[in-house]
């Protein structure tokens, strides 16, 4: 069974459609979801989900977030909040195993073919030292739940 692919993005930058098309091209059988807004509900070949539907699930983290970064607060906060949106979406749709991709990532392989490399990991990603998980695999809802609770 194909591994679902999830993107999260607000707005509709030019590169977004290419990331989505590339994921679809190499994963023709996978469910591909974009948690987004009205501006990016444009691609019929992915399932668009209004992220605002899950904003309640982000409120606890937002209320304790302290901004200590040179990036704008809106940008940096959403880097954290995406995981809470994704968790709520997965809970609501009974999605266990999935791949999360940053919206500026071009995928060049079927993710189900790569699963053998990370099938024994609860969470696997591309950020060994840099801390930028452009590609993150979760093997169960429990894994993302634990991650967000941390």
Plain-language structure description:
The protein is α/β, with parallel strands linked by helices. It has five helices and six strands; from the N terminus they run βαββααβαββα. The protein has helices at 14-26, 59-64, 73-93, 111-118, 141-149, and strands at residues 5-8, 32-36, 47-50, 98-101, 123-125, 135-138. A six-stranded mixed beta sheet has the order 3-2-1-4-6-5, sandwiched between helices. Helix 3 (73-93) packs antiparallel against helix 5. The mean pLDDT is 92.
Q: Which parts are unreliable, with pLDDT below 50 for 5 consecutive residues or more?
A: none
Compute the number of strand runs.
6
Number of alpha- plus pi-helical segments:
5
Report the portion of residues in β strands.
15-25%
Strand order of the largest sheet: 3-2-1-4-6-5
| Biggest β-sheet strands, sense, barrel | 6 strands, mixed
Fill in the keyword field for this structure:
single chain; 150 residues; alpha/beta; 6-stranded mixed beta sheet
Topology of helices and strands:
Blueprint: E1 5-8, H1 14-26, E2 32-36, E3 47-50, H2 59-64, H3 73-93, E4 98-101, H4 111-118, E5 123-125, E6 135-138, H5 141-149
Parallel strand pairs: 1-2, 1-4, 2-3
Antiparallel strand pairs: 4-6, 5-6
Brief write-up:
This protein is α/β, with parallel strands linked by helices and 150 residues long. It has helices spanning 14-26, 59-64, 73-93, 111-118, 141-149; strands at 5-8, 32-36, 47-50, 98-101, 123-125, 135-138.
